[in-house]
């Protein structure tokens, strides 16, 4: 295996077909997502993407990374898609069967190539699944090279492994929830609620501001700014969603109740799984349960299509378990090379993290009423 650094956008764009071929069934690894992220969030950052090529000249892997440079933190390697976009299931892009070879090549290149090893002071991996084989192999090899590791559990992503029939899915629900879901579906079937799957550019142009309006009004009603308060996030997600629409991988749904927009959600398809990324509901129609209606109608449609997975991504909101979704732990890794300055920064970070943990526990103890 041979590793070549790609550090210019034009280099990566020329590899977009190979990139998507290696992304397999994870939409958030696709060029439509990560390339768009770089166009909107790359200012002030540097691309740092190792490309792994075999002896026959075939690209068999990428590490989708960039460098954030900070006076106090040093040069931090992070995933493309990190930060405000909150991207899940990030990992190395590899062809099937080459996960270990790609991870080994990148780990050795990072730590033994003299022209590379002093270009980074810390590697932060936020968002990989706990059982991701490529990440575990990379971590294992980096540890063997003398790097310091720190792992902590991230949030859970929540997924429903869909059954073959709608009736079977209903049988999984609690008695009370099954009654509520049937009532929601009855409104769809009798025409009181109408589900629309946005499938053309014209429909997209009309539906997008509806999603933004519903999301923002709901979050503001809860005292939060809403994701689309960030213009950069809005423009990034709109462009990425439009590209997924062109690729035939966008699942953008709206539901109207009595002719009025009540709920919307944007999701992306990867293989036989649909990943729900962003949503909104009308806060003035909460008594109509628009969130339950759109979820029930979409899941029923996906089951009828033969889709096998419905993934709500990270976040431990109670409604996910209520629908019988199962948690899948995401992880956070920090890798620090065995050099003095990075190690000192890491020691300071550990001390600060320990202090924050102590203060949080002390506050919680004080907040709990004491009984004799």
Note down, in words, how this protein is organized.
The chain is α+β, with helices and mostly antiparallel strands. Strand 11 and strand 12 (260-270) form a beta hairpin. It is built from 13 helices and 15 strands. The longest helix has 28 residues, at 340-367. The mean pLDDT is 93. Helix content is 44%, strand content 28%. The strands form two sheets. The protein has an eleven-stranded mixed β-sheet with strand order 2-5-6-8-15-9-14-13-12-11-10, sandwiched between helices.
Q: What is the percent of helical residues? A: 40-55%
* Total number of helices: 13
Q: Give me the CATH fold name of the largest domain.
A: Aminopeptidase
Q: Sketch the topology as an H/E string, one letter per element.
A: EHHHEEEEEEHHEHEHHEHHEEEHEHEH
The helix-and-strand class reads: alpha+beta
CATH class of the largest domain: Alpha Beta
Shape: globular
In percent, how much strand structure appears in the residues? 25-35%
Kindly report the average pLDDT value.
93
CA radius of gyration is: 23 Å
- Under CATH, the homologous superfamily of the largest domain reads Gcn5-related N-acetyltransferase (GNAT)
Measured distance between first and last alpha carbons: 67 Å
Strand order within the widest sheet? Answer: 2-5-6-8-15-9-14-13-12-11-10
Total domains: 2
Low-confidence stretches: none
Number of strands: 15
């Amino acid at each position: 295996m041979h590793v070549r650094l790609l550090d210019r956008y034009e280099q990566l764009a020329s590899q977009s077909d190979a990139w998507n071929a290696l992304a397999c069934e994870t939409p958030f690894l696709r060029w439509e997502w990560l390339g768009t992220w770089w166009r909107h969030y790359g200012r002030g950052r540097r691309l740092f993407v190792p490309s792994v090529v075999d002896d026959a000249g075939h690209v068999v892997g990428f590490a989708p990374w960039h460098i954030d440079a900070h006076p106090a933190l040093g040069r931090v390697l992070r995933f493309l898609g990190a930060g405000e976009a909150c991207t899940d299931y990030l990992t190395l892009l590899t062809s099937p069967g080459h996960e270990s070879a790609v991870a080994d090549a990148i780990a050795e290149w990072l730590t033994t190539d003299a022209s590379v090893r002093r270009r980074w002071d810390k590697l932060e991996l936020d968002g990989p699944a706990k059982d991701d084989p490529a990440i575990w192999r990379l971590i294992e090899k980096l540890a063997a090279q003398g790097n310091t590791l720190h792992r902590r559990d991230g949030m859970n992503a929540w997924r429903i492994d869909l059954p073959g029939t709608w009736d079977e899915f209903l049988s999984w629900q609690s008695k009370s929830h099954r009654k509520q879901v049937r009532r929601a579906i009855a409104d769809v079937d009798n025409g009181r609620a109408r589900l629309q799957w946005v499938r053309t550019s014209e429909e997209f142009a009309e539906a997008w501001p509806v999603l933004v309006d519903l999301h923002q009004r709901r979050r503001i009603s809860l005292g939060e700014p809403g994701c689309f308060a960030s213009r950069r996030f809005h423009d990034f997600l709109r462009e990425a969603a439009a590209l997924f629409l062109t690729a035939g991988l966008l699942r953008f749904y709206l539901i109207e109740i009595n002719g009025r927009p009540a709920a919307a959600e944007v999701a992306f398809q990867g293989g036989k799984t649909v990943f729900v990324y962003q949503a909104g509901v009308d806060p003035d129609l909460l008594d109509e349960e628009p969130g339950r209606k759109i979820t029930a109608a979409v899941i029923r449609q996906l089951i009828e299509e033969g889709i096998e997975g419905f993934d709500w991504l990270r976040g431990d909101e109670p409604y996910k378990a209520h629908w019988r979704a199962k948690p899948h732990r995401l992880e956070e890794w920090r890798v620090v090379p065995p050099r003095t300055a990075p190690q000192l920064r890491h020691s300071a970070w550990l001390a600060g993290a320990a202090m924050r943990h102590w203060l949080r526990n002390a506050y919680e103890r004080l907040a709990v009423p004491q009984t004799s």
